Amino acid sequence: MNKPGGDNLKKLKAQRKAKQNDALLPNLPGMAYRCKYDRDWTMLFVSEGCYDLTGYKAEDLVNNKEVPFNEIINPEYREPIWKEWERVIALKETFRYEYEITTAKGEKKWVLETGRGIYGPDGKAELLEGIIIDVTERKERELQLKYLYDHDYLTSLYNRRYFEEILLRDACAAPDKKRAVILINLRKFTYLNITYGYHYSENLVREIVGNLLRLCRDNVRLFHISIDRYAFYVEGFAGKDALVSFCGAVSETLGISPMLKTIGWSIGVYEIRPGDRDPENILKNASLAAANVRASASGYSFFDNELEERLYRKADIVRELTRAAIYDDSGLFLVYQPILDLKRNTVYGFEALARLKSETLGEVMPGEFIPIAEESQLIIPIGRIIIRKALDFMERLHAGGYKNAKVSVNISTIQLLEDSFIPSLTEAIGEKSIDPANLCLEITESVFSSDYEEINRRLDEIRRFGIRVALDDFGTGYSTLARERELNVDIMKIDKYFIDKILTIDARQAITSDIISMAHKLGHSVVAEGVENEYQKQYLIENGCDFIQGFLFSKPLPEYKAAELLG
Ligand code: C2E
Ligand code: CA
Ligand code: CA
Description:
By secondary structure, this protein is of the alpha/beta class.
């Protein structure tokens, strides 16, 4: 039999392939090519689709007759494409790359090229072949999506997500470069939304951002963090002074808007430290610095060592309070300051004062930890523990035979406003053998700044259980005499401020005596707080004050000493 020779077989196959190509290539949404592996990508074969794709006829490209293919490629891609070919050829892999070209008419198009090398017997790439197709539509959609992903729709600024990406990238690429985040916090934004509506505040934001953008430079960029937070990212600045003066410029720019001047702002500066790689932490530190600006002022604050230490201490206190609230309340204890009955010259009772103790913190005073407990809402469980400990103390006094000793406990407004406060208080009292009349709750004038009607109703309810109520720190806060009259309290505690006045100004001019007689007229007993010397005591006796409390008689005492005092 006559077998076709090897050469013939090859010819046949090539013919069949050419026929297939004839059918395939004209329908390709792009062009197929074969070219030399050189810097021009000198074309040896180009399919007809070339014209639709590039605007050049196939024969214009072959052998670089009119234009080398490399010149159609946009310049910024030429070198990366060469590098990528070098890489894939070394590995004998497939080439895949997206880049932009400029057509004969000057139109820009996105293309996807897929190709491979044709290797000689020595393994060297002799030619390249592949296809290039138009992906402009898809690419534009992708870019649009990417734009939406990286930008804020309202201000068109880069968003927080993108900012975090940049912070991370820069931390890795140039850890030693000076970088800072200057975070702007617009205050009372919810108030603006409520009062003027969302459109108004959105327009205001656009106006503010428009102004702030004028401060941007090559090394200063502005980002959208949230509707009321914006951040400048400053790179390669000279030093802290430069940041201070930049903050001045930011304040000036913000001040252009009269509305913003009234609602106010705070600026927090965080100088990124080498090794700071956590974008979330960077933004958090800048926010903490901003939160450090006084609520009443518009200004700036740096995140410095002192602030950091304070924040660490605060975090430690929150940790200890949480521990006391949930696991083990032994770090939380009470000391008792005696209250002296001036008329009978006897110990009338005690004010329970909270203390927090831990190995790391030592002894922490309530002036420090109570506001933190209030801010973190831990005051609710902490307050409950304090009441329980005070009631335990009362029960022990009662058991020791001191059936009339009074005990005062300080209560935060937040506690009072909690719905389960009164039921759990009365339940706790019910479980003990104590007389509710011996318990007094001390509230401060801050009740006047809260839901006053509701608080007054609750105070009334508390008093109907026989528990007594004292208004603490009288004269320092919000009260007016007119409202004092309506408040359901039994006792008024005159703040140390007015007791000090007895010494510093002519006693006859001190209004302390007026406060005492006014309180009496309202039917309240009066406790003078912070009595430190005999002269004050005499003044208070002469002016009919009922009780005194202060270092003159005794400092707050541990329980055993307090009980001794009664004995
Ligand atoms: P406060 O209720 O006005 O308590 C009186 C504070 O004045 C106590 O400070 C007491 O040690 C101090 N003091 C008493 N006599 C004198 C004196 O003669 N001179 C001077 N310079 N100070 C005197 P402390 O124990 O540091 O308590 C501070 C504040 O913390 C209390 O002020 C009270 O508002 C709050 N607090 C204390 N314990 C609790 C608590 O259990 N719950 C709540 N919510 N607040 C508490
Ligand atoms: Ca008090
Ligand atoms: Ca007080």
